[in-house]
Amino acid sequence: MRPADETTLVSSDGITISATHVAATGQGSHDLCLLVAHGFTNGWRVPRVQRVIGRLARFGGIIALDFRGHGRSSGVSTVGEREIHDLDAGVRWARDLGYRCVVPVGFSMGGSVVLRQAAIGCEPVDAVVSVSAPAFWYYRGTRVMRLLHLAVGTRAGRAVMRTRGVRIGADDWPDPLPMEPVAAAAIIDVPLLIVHGHVDHYFPVEHPKALHRAAVNGGNERAELWLIEGFAHAESGIDDPTLDAIGTWIRQTCRLEQIGAPVGWGSS
């Protein structure tokens, strides 16, 4: 992967955000920026996220950031609520760098953030890709999510997470709750790609189906759902062919080249 430019961005609510920019490699378009939004406990320096960055850089320039409470960013994680301000800062940087087409690609928690940012964020995007995202807040239908709620919702759990480099806020979410990803999907008016694995052990396929249904019912004729056989979850589970298909979809959506995704992709 080419050497990256590192910088510190500042969100609209005053959080400093560690970010990196990687120029497009190979035949990647210099008009296109893919804004990689990591999952919970990850960050742009984590090897599995670096692998995603390196693969997607074949299709366009990359901006990746550490969400608040992660890596070298300040603040505390709100697990998807205020992180849209972090993503807005990344979009602004992409525009400042001269990119014509900016497309966030989010994984798990980041997948929920890119949906909410596309719906209610301050910075417009040209399309959005959500991978392995939840549709609903407070989902506890799988064992791993029940454990995650213990980690986030208890003092002992948050102490353990700090040893993994994640600082989690102790404040309750506002009442009423912030907009759920499924509600955000219903009002997104740019091309939307929802990617999910059939064997996701965090969020079963009811989540991507609900997101896609909400988008279609909301009138988004450019919403697609890909359910991938053998794919588990987010950055650690996604394979290179799926990343390549996502990159191809983005380039076609931004009309940077008139080629389609490989045969067999895009089935719901």
What features would you describe in this structure?
This protein is an alpha/beta fold. It has a single domain, classed as Alpha/Beta hydrolase fold, catalytic domain (Rossmann fold, 3-Layer(aba) Sandwich), CATH 3.40.50.1820. It is 34% helix and 19% strand. It is built from nine helices and eight strands. The chain has helices at residues 47-56, 83-96, 109-120, 143-153, 155-163, 181-185, 206-217, 234-237, 240-253; strands at 5-10, 16-22, 29-37, 60-65, 101-107, 128-131, 192-197, 223-228. The chain has an eight-stranded mixed β-sheet with strand order 1-2-4-3-5-6-7-8, with helices on both faces. A hairpin with a 5-residue loop joins strand 1 (5-10) and strand 2 (16-22). The longest helix has 14 residues, at 83-96. It starts with a strand and ends in a 15-residue tail after the last helix. Mean pLDDT is 92; it is low at 258-268.
- Structural class given helices, strands, pairing? alpha/beta
Distance between the termini: 33 Å
- The dominant shape is globular
Largest sheet: 8 strands, mixed
Average pLDDT, rounded to a whole number, is 92
What fold name goes in the CATH topology slot? Rossmann fold
Helix content: 25-40%
The CATH superfamily bears the name Alpha/Beta hydrolase fold, catalytic domain
Domain AB hydrolase-1: 34-184
Pfam families: Abhydrolase_6
Highlighted features:
about 270 residues, alpha/beta, Rossmann fold, 8-stranded mixed beta sheet, globular, AB_hydrolase_fold, AB_hydrolase_1
